[in-house]
Amino acid sequence: MDGDLYMIAMDGDLYMIAMDGDLYMIAMDGDLYMIDMDGDLYMIAMDGDLYMIAMDGDLYMIAMDGDLYMIAMDGDLYMIAMDGDLYMIAMDGDLYMIAMDGDLYMIAMDGDLYMIAMDGDLYIFAHV
User: Fold this and answer.
1) Distance between CA atoms of 76 and 71, rounded to whole angstroms?
2) Does 97 or 128 have the greater pLDDT score?
3) What CA–CA distance (Å, rounded) separates 98 from 88?
4) Which range marks the domain in which residue 58 is found?
5) Do 10 and 56 belong to one domain?
6) Is-contact 86 95, C-beta < 8 A?
7) Number of folded domains in the chain?
8) Which range among 13-17, 18-22, 29-33, 90-94 shows the weakest confidence by mean pLDDT?
9) Closest by alpha carbon to 54, among 43, 69, 68?
């Protein structure tokens, strides 16, 4: 909330227009961008690495392990490991295993977690 304006160009490059009017290229390569509720911006690069641009403009590498990361609208970060296990990474950085049962999990835009069990049943876990 520092007044800087971020924009994503048609080619996927991320730019910042600072309060003084200067234009900065922050990231490039057609990455996927998401902004959490705190205003931090996450990028999932084409090679699967996960980066965060904090509100102060600093860039952090969060992960580079080939796992799939998803960010819910409320800012929670979920990880599906290469072995299929599901984890939640809390805002304080703690890692919680949610499941290791081979079922399919999906996270909705509102943060609710859906599971399709191996027998085909659908389960909904409301976000708390």
Assistant:
1) 6
2) 97
3) 7
4) 1-66
5) yes
6) no
7) 2
8) 29-33
9) 43
Looking up tokens 């580079």 gives: 64
Distance between CA atoms of 44 and 26, rounded to whole angstroms?
Answer: 14
Over the stretch 25-49, which tens digit does the pLDDT of each residue have?
Answer: 776 665 556 677 677 777 766 666 7
Q: Give the residue from 29, 45, 66 where a domain finishes.
A: 66
Report residue 53 as tokens.
């641009």
Q: What residues does 114 pair with on adjacent strands?
A: 106, 124
pLDDT tens by residue, 59-69:
777 766 666 66
Share of the chain above pLDDT 90, in %: 0
Residues 91 and 128 in one domain: yes
pLDDT at 33: 64
- Residues 1 and 61 grouped into a single domain: yes
Could you tell me if 72 and 116 lie in one domain? yes
